[in-house]
Amino acid sequence: MDAAMPTLEVKGLRTHFFTKAGVVKAVDDVSFRVGRGEVLGLVGESGSGKSVTGFSVLGLVDPPGRIVEGSIRFAGRELVGIAERQWRDIRGAKIAMIFQDPMMTLNPVLRIDTQMVEAIRAHEPRIERAEAHRRCIAALGQVGIPSPEERLRAYPHQFSGGMRQRVAIAIALLNKPDLIIADEPTTALDVTIQAQILYEAQKLTRETGTALIWITHDLTVVAGLADRICVMYAGRIVEEGSVDEVLDNPLHPYTRGLIGSVPGRNKRGSPLYQIPGMTPSLIRLPRGCAFRERCREAVEACGEPQPIVHPAPGRAVRCCRCSRPGAVQ
Amino acid sequence: MLVFLIRRLSQSLVVLLVMSFLVFVGVFAIGDPVELLVSPDADQFERARVIRDLGLDRPLWEQYGVFLLQSLKGDLGNSFVFNQPALQLILERMPATLELAFAAVIIAIVIGIPLGMVAGLRPHAWYSRMIMSVSILGFSLPTFWVGLMMIMLFAVMLGWLPASGRGETVDLLGVPVSFLSEDGLRHLLLPAINLALFKVSLVIRLTRAGMRENMLMDYVKFAYAKGLSHGRVIFVHVLKNILVPIVTVVGLELGNVIAFAVVTESIFAWPGMGKLLIDSIYRLDRPIVVAYLMITVLMFILINLIVDILYSVLDPRVRIADVKS
User: Which residues in B lie closer than 8 A to residue A157 (C-beta atoms)?
Assistant: First the structure.
């Protein structure tokens, strides 16, 4: 792979759901790129479209949803519009995914070895059973599961939640993918397990050069893990930048709200900040900024479609107030 | 496993005992078989002799006691009408009923599961709607009416299939069966379909519901994310999950079909246990009715046991030790 070419480049992606109530614009003009070995944090609250973005990249959007516009280029190759058969060769082999709830992602009635070997066989039908087993054991060992040979013969219900998530990660690693999409993989786990999983993820990207898209609503998780952050709101990316810049100097009022609502040591005793109001319905999005109704700094110009502005190199924000000179301190 | 079996079988004994008492008293209360057994022109002396021979002059509790003692020896009494052991009469007719019941259940599975899967995968397609509409008919049309219509259409008007009897039988391990000869198979077809109609509808609905529920689960999406084909996801991942409720219901239905194939057996003059039961109830042939119901209870207990064991094979989360009575 060309070093300069990003592993994944998404441009102007729109994924809409055509329901009886109307068109739900779950993802509306989203663009981002992830380079080799890079960790991109996709942050937003529930319903902001971050999971649908992840599923779009794998071609796994359930009907009535579909990608209506945009381009998803993986290692230079366009994925939007390719046949199901070609998707199948990419899923699990080039791009793997980890889901939110480890209790639900493994099939309860199939043994771990069955579920792992089939992931290899799907892409290498002629591989020998012993060789496939050896790779499964190696993958389980890589994510820190003790005595992997024995655990291979177990059923999912014989594992704890954290162990199951490790198995899911091991399955994602089996075919050495170039990109892993992790959809809130630590949300359902307790904090100590979460820390272990994050450590494994970090180690993985450093050792193998696998790119990682980490979808989460938890800013504290991406703070220690991601290289870059995209903040999503109502189907759009409202702010993008390196993790330090965005967290230290948030430009979009929504990002500031998110950071302000994280409990911290220096805020003890004072009431925690809440963003007023609720996320808007994705069926009837306003013409202008979707955050306008909840924004304390809204002005007349917010009623117009918001352009993406680049107040500094490597930073982007979708807010007209940030285009003023001197908006970035 | 052993503890489970012992506990289960001892519970079954209690059920059998209670059952036998209820049936015995129930049939005793229905009426006096002597009226039907003795010819109307018999004299007083003749009547008294028959009553004494059958043991009907003794009080109920004594009759029941004798029955219990005898049944421990495996003797469930002699039929009043045929003057043969009741158990033997029933067991002679059992293969016919078992054959009919298994044929019906196999039809239900072979037709019901694929149709249910199709209807569950494409719930809005016209063919899925048609499958569901037809399955409502299967549920709601009375068996006897469908049976008569089938006889009218296929046996009387078209003349394709015979309307009654078992046809030519072939001995399989000493048991006469119909399905091995062509003539027997032709005789089996109509009654088996008639009996299967309700079960097919049931299996279709169960399979469809399971399919729709499971296709939305995360494990299905995860399986697709691994790059698996539709076939692998549906036939390995989903099918194995929906099999658990289907096995339960089909198992219980099998018991129902064996015990109460009465209507179908009567319409198609199938020489099975159901027909014997109906005849015996008409003639107040108490030993046969009691023996029949005892066998039925025993059969249900066995089927439930097998279903529970199958459970643990299909679903690793259920282990035999966890299955409570």
Answer: 316-317
**Domain B87-322 -> CATH class:** mainly alpha
B212 touches chain A (CB under 8 A): no
**What ipTM was assigned to the predicted interfaces of this complex?**
0.85
Mean pLDDT of A255-274: 75
pLDDT at residue B182, rounded to an integer: 75
CA–CA min distance B210, chain A (Å):
15
- How many residue pairs from chains A and B have C-beta atoms closer than 8 A? 74
Rounded CA gap, A290 and A235, in Å?
9
User: Do A122 and B240 lie within an 8 Å CB cutoff?
Assistant: no
Please report residues of A whose CB lies closer than 8 A to that of B229.
88, 122
**What angle do the packed helices A191-208 and A161-173 form, to 10 degrees?**
10
What's the whole-number average pLDDT of chain A? 84
Task: Out of A88, A104, A155, name the one closest to residue B218 (CB).
Answer: A104
How is chain B split into domains, by residue range?
A: 2-72, 87-322
Please indicate whether, in this complex, the C-beta atoms of A171 and B227 are within 8 angstroms of each other.
Answer: no
Tell me the CATH class for A95-176: alpha beta
Please say whether the dihedral angle defined by the alpha carbons of residues B17, B19, B21 and B24, taken in this order, is positive or negative: negative
Q: Do A157 and B317 touch (CB under 8 A)?
A: yes
Q: Chain A contact for B42, CB < 8 A?
A: no
Mean pLDDT, rounded, of chain B: 82
CA distances from B38 to A149, B51, B63, B80, B82 (A): 78, 10, 20, 11, 13
The pLDDT, as a whole number, for residue B320 is 52
Could you tell me which chain B residue has the CA closest to the CA of A86? Answer: B227
- Beta carbons of B240 and A118 less than 8 Å apart: no
Q: What does the pLDDT look like over A90-115, one tens digit per residue?
A: 898 889 998 888 888 898 888 888 89
Task: Say what percent of chain A tops pLDDT 90.
Answer: 5
Q: Which of B217, B224, B237 sits opposite A104 (nearest CB)?
A: B217
Question: Is residue B294 within 8 Å of B114, Cβ to Cβ?
Answer: no
Q: How far is B3 from chain A (nearest CA, A)?
A: 24
**Residue among B226, B236, B237 whose CB faces A171 most closely:** B226
Closest-CA distance, A25 to chain B, in angstroms, reads: 21
A163-177, A265-279, B131-145: which has the minimum mean pLDDT? A265-279
A325 preceded by a cis bond (ω within 30 of 0)? no
